[in-house]
C-alpha cells in the first residue's frame, strides 16, 4: 500500500458523514474530529508495528500512538499473546486476580515513590481519585493546577485545561457548576512564584498541587530548572500533597517517569496510557500512609466495576516487561535525537520560524518564533501554519496529532529508515 498522488479520503468521508448522525461530532473524544486542523478525520481500519492503515488504503507512520500508550508499536506480539491468553480465561470477574498484584509490583518496582497503587480505567479517573484522596488525607479543599495542563475531564479540573479544550478554543465547559471549581486555584506553568503567593494567601486550605511534570497538553513544555523542585519545597512547607500527573510521561520518558529524570519524589502519582498497553487502564499510587486512606482500608471511597480488568492487566504487564528489557529507553532517546537533528535541519534549510521541542520519545513542532514556556506563549503559535504542515505530512504518509497543542510520540517500532522518511516529509512540509 502506498500513498499515491491522488490522495483521497473518500471512504473516511462517507463513514464520517454516517458517524456524525450517531455520535456528537462523529467521535467519542473531541480532538479526534480534526477540528484543530480544519478538516475531516481519517478512519482507521487496523494497525501494526509503526503503521496505521486507513479505510481508503493508505498507510501511515503513526506518531499519535493512540495518544501515548502504544510505545512498543501496534499489535506487539508479546502483548497480543498475553491479551489473547487472558481472554481465553475470561473477560472480567469483578473479583481479585493475581495479575493485579503482578502489574502493581511492576509499577512499584519501577517508580520508587509508589508504595501502593489502585487501578482504575482512565487517566481522568486517576486524577479525580488522587485529588479526592489528597483532600481526604489533608482535610482541606483547595487545589492548585496549572493553566494549559490537562488532567482529564472531571468537573473541578476543567479550568484552564489544555488538550482538546485548547484545540477547540472552548471556554471552561458549560455544565460545570462554579461551586465545583471555586476550590480550583490556577497558576501559570513554570511560575513557582505564583504558587508561592497562593500558598501565602491560603496557608491552611490547599490540599494538593497537581502538575504534569512535562506539560504535554499544550504541545510540549518542559519544566524549567527549579520549577518542580520549588513545588516540592512549597508543598512540604505547607503540608500539602504534591501530585505528579504522569499519565502521559509515565513509562514514556523513563521507566520511572519524569520523577526519575528530575529526581523528585511526589506524594502521589497518576498513571494511564502505557500502563494499560492500549487497553483502558489508569492508576494512582504513592506513599503507603496516604494510600491507606483508600477504601476498604480507609474511608476515602473509590471503586470500579471493571477496574483491574484481566485483559487490561495482561496488556499492561506484557508492555512493562518489554520496556524493562535493557536499552529500551536509550533506544528511544537515540531515535528521538535523530528526529530532532533532522527536523532542525529541515527548519534551517527552509528558513522556517518554528521550534522543535523534545524530551525522550515525545516531541512537538511549534510554529512560533518565541520561546514556549507556558499556556500564553504556547497559544501564540501559528495554528494555520500548523494545519498546512499537518496535512502535508498526512498526505506524505505521516500521521501526527491533528492539533498544535498535542505532543507526538516515538515508538520502539520505528526504525531508522522510517525516521529518515519522516524527516524527508518534514523537509517538504514545514513550509507548506
Ligand atoms: N492526565 C494527562 C496528563 C493526560 O494527558 C490525559 C489524557 N491525555 C489525562 C490525564 C486523561 O486521561 P484519559 O483520557 O485516559 O481520561
UniProtKB/TrEMBL annotation:
The keyword Transferase does not apply. Its main location: cytoplasm. It comes from the Bacteria. It holds the Pfam family Aminotran_3. Its cofactor is pyridoxal 5'-phosphate. Keywords: Cytoplasm, Isomerase, Porphyrin biosynthesis, Pyridoxal phosphate. It catalyses: (S)-4-amino-5-oxopentanoate = 5-aminolevulinate. Its EC number is 5.4.3.8. The keyword DNA-binding does not apply. Pathway: Porphyrin-containing compound metabolism; protoporphyrin-IX biosynthesis; 5-aminolevulinate from L-glutamyl-tRNA(Glu): step 2/2. The modification N6-(pyridoxal phosphate)lysine is found at residue 273. NCBIfam families: hemL, PRK00062.1. Belongs to the class-III pyridoxal-phosphate-dependent aminotransferase family. HemL subfamily. This is Glutamate-1-semialdehyde 2,1-aminomutase. The gene is hemL.
Amino acid at each position: 500500500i502506498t500513498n499515491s498522488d491522488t490522495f483521497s479520503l473518500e471512504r473516511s468521508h462517507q463513514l464520517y458523514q454516517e458517524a456524525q448522525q450517531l455520535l456528537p461530532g462523529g467521535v467519542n473524544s473531541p480532538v479526534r474530529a480534526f477540528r484543530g486542523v480544519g478538516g475531516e478525520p481519517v478512519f482507521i481500519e487496523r494497525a501494526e508495528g509503526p503503521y496505521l492503515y486507513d479505510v481508503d488504503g493508505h498507510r501511515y507512520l503513526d506518531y499519535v500512538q493512540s495518544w501515548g500508550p502504544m510505545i512498543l508499536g501496534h499489535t506487539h506480539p508479546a502483548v497480543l499473546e498475553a491479551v489473547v491468553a487472558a481472554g481465553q480465561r475470561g473477560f472480567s470477574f469483578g473479583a481479585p486476580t493475581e495479575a493485579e498484584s503482578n502489574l502493581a509490583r511492576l509499577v512499584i518496582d519501577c517508580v520508587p515513590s509508589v508504595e501502593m497503587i489502585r487501578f482504575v480505567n482512565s487517566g481522568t479517573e486517576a486524577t479525580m481519585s488522587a485529588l479526592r484522596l489528597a483532600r481526604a488525607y489533608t482535610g482541606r479543599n483547595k487545589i492548585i493546577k496549572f493553566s494549559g495542563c490537562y488532567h482529564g475531564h472531571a468537573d473541578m479540573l476543567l479550568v484552564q485545561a489544555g488538550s482538546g479544550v485548547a484545540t477547540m478554543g472552548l471556554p471552561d465547559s458549560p455544565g460545570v457548576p462554579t461551586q465545583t471549581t471555586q476550590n480550583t486555584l490556577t497558576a501559570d506553568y513554570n511560575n513557582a512564584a505564583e504558587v508561592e503567593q497562593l500558598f501565602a494567601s491560603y496557608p491552611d486550605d490547599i490540599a494538593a498541587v497537581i502538575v504534569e511534570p512535562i506539560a504535554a497538553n499544550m504541545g510540549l513544555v518542559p519544566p524549567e530548572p527549579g520549577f518542580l523542585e520549588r513545588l516540592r519545597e512549597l508543598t512540604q512547607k505547607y503540608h500539602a500533597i504534591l501530585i505528579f500527573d504522569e499519565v502521559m510521561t509515565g513509562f514514556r520518558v523513563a521507566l520511572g517517569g519524569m520523577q526519575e529524570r528530575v529526581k523528585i519524589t511526589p506524594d502521589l502519582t497518576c498513571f494511564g496510557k502505557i500502563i494499560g498497553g492500549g487497553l483502558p487502564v489508569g492508576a494512582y499510587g504513592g506513599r503507603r500512609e496516604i494510600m491507606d486512606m483508600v477504601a476498604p482500608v480507609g474511608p476515602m471511597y473509590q471503586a470500579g466495576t471493571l477496574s483491574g480488568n484481566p485483559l487490561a492487566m495482561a496488556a499492561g504487564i506484557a508492555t512493562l516487561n518489554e520496556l524493562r528489557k535493557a536499552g529500551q529507553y536509550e533506544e528511544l532517546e537515540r531515535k528521538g535525537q535523530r528526529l530532532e537533528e533532522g527536523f532542525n535541519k529541515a527548519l534551517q534549510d527552509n528558513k522556517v520560524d518554528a521550534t522543535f521541542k523534545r524530551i525522550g520519545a515525545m516531541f512537538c513542532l511549534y510554529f512560533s518564533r518565541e520561546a514556549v514556556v507556558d499556556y500564553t506563549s504556547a497559544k501564540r503559535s501559528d495554528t494555520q501554519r500548523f494545519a498546512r504542515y499537518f496535512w502535508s505530512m498526512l498526505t506524505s504518509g505521516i500521521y501526527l496529532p491533528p492539533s498544535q497543542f498535542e505532543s507526538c510520540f516515538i515508538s520502539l517500532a520505528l526504525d531508522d529508515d522510517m525516521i529518515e522518511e519522516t524527516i524527508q516529509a518534514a523537509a517538504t512540509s514545514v513550509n507548506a
